[in-house]
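Appendix B, example 12.
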Amino acid sequence: MENKRELKPRCTMYKNPMFLSADKKLKPCCFLNPHAEWKIFKEWGEERGLDISEDLDIIKYSRKEIFESATWKGLLESFKTDDAPYTCYKECGHDSYTSDTMTAKHSKYKQTNNKE
């Protein structure tokens, strides 16, 4: 039986690519940047006692400090415990788009053995 909660987080597959947002937050990936997704992510954090907006503030903290924050560590741990935010499952889980490279989601990429 196929695991519907399967997760292949691109943020860990590619040595933690991240997204610096206009609101000065260092986000784990671009999928968390749209307002609705950011809100869901913050709610996920609040349910776990995390202050995501504070922990990911690039003005207050260095990248190293952000990577060592409770939020960043909690997110990485959630990938192992089947407790990741909804957006992670939506974008990097079962039935998400199939690129396993750094190719943009909305590009004309086709996974057909490099053939058009």
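The chain has six helices and two strands. Strands lie at 19-20, 26-27.
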